[in-house]
Each structure stands twice: as structure tokens, then as C-alpha cells.
Amino acid sequence: MALAGPPGGAGWTWRPVARDALLARAFHSCTELRGRFYLVGGLPAGGATEPSGDTVVFDPAGGQAVRLGARGGPRRSHHDAAPVGGRWLCVVGGWDGSRRVATVAALDTERGAWEAWSAAPGSRPPAGLSSHTCTRVSDRELRVAGREGGTRTQRRYGSVYTLRLDPGARTYSYKEEGCHTASRSGHSAALLQTPGPRPGHQLLLFGGCNSAEPEVAGHWSHGKLGEEPPAAPRLREQLARLVSTGQGSRQGPRGLRHHSCSVVGPFAVLFGGETLTRARDTICNDLYIYDTRRSPPSWFHFPCADQGLKRVGHRTCLWNDQLYLVGGFGEDGRTPSPQVCILDLFI
């Protein structure tokens, strides 16, 4: 297990805490709900075009993974998912093996059953979504960002949608927002506070195209947002100490996609992915921290020498003041990792 980071004693690594073949997949979703991680779909190996239709539940406290017996789960990869009402896991869009879809499937975690929700009257769904992002802005509202289209037609810009979910009626409704973004695929999204005496929030998109610049896909003034991110005071303090050892930059990673991104207080923590800037050795193992505590924000880059930590199509999940890494293809871009790791910071 190699230690990564700048000289002088500070560094980081991903420490394995569990291993199970059920977890070996990439381009899946991994969502924390009631202290469990729900892994849905994904690709079982590099080169596969038929996504998995299974759901695996991982208990981070006990380190155990079990396959959910519920039938009718969606076959999806390159999708996203979000918890709703503390009970439902809503899977949005993705690749179903033959086309990009924009439908919503919901797992009722209390009953352990999948439900096919229907589009409400007046819903204006995208033509199809894959490698997009879904970000909770309230308990029943998601902001969806990404390039839409079928397999033959793609818009040359990114679309932003509000997706409203109604668990009581088992319906969903899309509304296209007026703003467009750069055409992005395989990007990440982070809902972060804006600095100042009356902080609002903005939704930032990172990567998924050649640009290194984050892009705003939504803005909410002070008190307008109904979403409280999970508190992680110890990890937040560790990240603050780690960035204090680094050299900040205004420039973020250029051409990064299919990386992971988790918000920890004022920080967005990005890891891995593949870079569009190289023809060979494209899969990455770098840690990037976007620090919004001051304006303008700064990027901090912490490279890694351990080739075994290269990941693409993986996910990170924040739970119990720790950041977990789940799944993804490794250095060869084909072999899925069966490991669950925790981010360890050494300051």
C-alpha cells in the first residue's frame, strides 16, 4: 500500500476494508441510504455492452455484501441514483444494453421491491441520458445535468433538467431549465456553498469535456435550498490540513471523465477517472481537492505512484465521517475491483 502526496510527511491512500466478488463492477451507481450502500447495475467487465440488472447491498459497519433478491431491477450502466424520502432509491436514466433511457425506476427499501414509476402528465423528459449526474436539491427534487440524445443523435451542448419525484403517486416529472452547459459526458457534479456572509449554493460540474473550468448548472440564494449535506467534521478537518501542505492552483484537471466526486463540507474531493489529454496510460489515480473556503476557489493536486490504485467508472460514498471507494475498473480498464476502500489521510 503506497503512500501518496507531497514530501514532508503528509499523504493519503485508499485502505482496503472489504472484498467481495459481488461488488466487482464499473459504471454502476452506489448510494448510501439508512447506513447501507446500494450498488445498482454497472458493467461486469471491460468491453461488456450488456449491463447487470442486479442490486447489491453493502453494510459498511459489518463489511458484508448481499445480493438483493428483489425482481424487476433495471438493467443499467452509466446511470445515476438518489435517495428519496429516506425510503426509496431512484435510479435515473442510463444505458440499458440497447439505448439510452431517461426513465426512473425506484427500489422501495422497506419492502425490498422494485417499482416502475411513470412519467406525470406534462413531463418533458430528455431524449436519453447516460454518463450524466443527478444531484439532490431537496428531498423530492433532483437537478440532472448532461448531454442528452440517442445513440445516433447528440446535442452539441449539455442540458439541465429539474426532476421532481412523487413517491405517493409513484410518478416523476422532468422540466428543462433555461441554462445550457458545455457538452459533457462522464462529468461529476458538486453542490457547494458560495463564500460570503449570506452563503448561497451553486451546483458545479467538473470534467467530462476538454475544459478544465468548472461550470455552474444551478444557483440558489441563501436559505433557498432544502438539502443538508452529511456532516463529516473529522474528515473535513483532515482535508483542511492536507490542502495546507499543498500548493493551490486556479487550474483544475483538464479532460478528466468517469472519475468520482464527493462533497465534504467546503471541499469537493475528486479521484481517478480517465484523461482525454493522453493517448496511452489514460486511467488515473490522482486525488484532486477543490477548496471553496476563499474566493476564488483553489485546486489542490495530490498525485499517486501506486498503479494499483488506478480506477475508472468507480464511485465514492460518504458515511460515518469516512469516504469509501467502491468498484471501478483498474489499471487495464477491463478488470473490475471487488474491493471497498476508505480514504486515509496522513498529516
TrEMBL record:
Transmembrane segments: none
GO molecular function list: cyclin binding
Subunit text: Interacts with CCNA1.
Entries under InterPro entries matching the protein: Kelch-typ_b-propeller, KLDC9
Protein name as annotated: Kelch domain-containing protein 9
Entries under Gene3D superfamilies matching the protein: Kelch-type beta propeller (2.120.10.80)
Gene name per UniProt: KLHDC9
UniProt entry keywords in alphabetical sequence: Kelch repeat, Repeat
UniProt entry tagged with the keyword Repeat: yes
